[in-house]
Amino acid sequence: MIEVKDKIFKPYLGQPTIEKRVKELGREISKDYRGKDPIIIGVLNGAYIFLSDLSKAIDIPAEISFIKISSYEGDSSTGKVKRLIGLDVELKNRHVLLVEDIVDTGLSMINLLSQVNEKEPASVKTVTLLYKPDALRHNVALDYIGFQIPNKFVVGYGLDYDGFGRNIPEIYQLST
Question: Does residue 3 contact residue 12 with C-beta atoms inside 8 Å?
């Protein structure tokens, strides 16, 4: 058990399990994108650790960039997406891979896909470390999924609770 701010969390996914799955995703993406030189766009702040490890597991040439959005306050979604740092790279006719830490309601991913598709890429695929199908409110296609998890609040490995807990190397879920 760990405490992050005023909440108690229990272990959910350990470091070896996460590492193994991230390497598997890297191999799959490398195979699918061989010869395409994709641009990988990480969604800040949550995806930074996942993207760092995933990019090291991808063995093909790739450009990396970031976008920053926010839809959470504390431990719940606000239902609105705020763009904090926009896309500053050319995407026209490029193969784009959007990397998220977690997809729960789908609102952020829908918003991101809309922004990216406006730039006329050759293709767009999505990668998420965690997916909560029970929380999904917006239909969104996910191409690469690390782990499907129940609709529980999680922290660690880039995921936060009110800005804290991102630096925890494992993933913990809220203890009820």
Answer: no
Calculated CA dihedral for residues 71, 72, 73, 75, nearest 10 degrees: 160
Structure confidence at residue 50 as a pLDDT band (50, 70, 90): very high
How many helices (H) and strands (E) in the chain?
3, 10
Region at 14 (left for phi over 0; alpha for psi -120 to 50; beta for the rest): beta
- Phi, psi dihedrals of residue 91, rounded to the nearest 5°: -115, -10
Counting beta carbons within 10 angstroms of the beta carbon of residue 134, is it exposed (0 to 12), middle (13 to 18) or buried (19 or more)?
exposed
| DSSP classification of residue 35 | T
Ramachandran class of 158: left when φ > 0, alpha when ψ lies in -120 to 50, beta otherwise: left
Write the pLDDT tens digit of every residue in 148-160: 999 999 999 999 9
pLDDT in tens, 130-142: 999 998 888 898 9
Q: Which residues are catalytic?
A: 104
The rounded distance, in Å, linking the Cα atoms of 15 and 20 is: 9
160 — phi, psi (to 5°)? Answer: -130, 165
Instruction: Spell out the domains of the chain, with CATH numbers in brackets.
Output: 13-70+80-153 (3.40.50.2020)
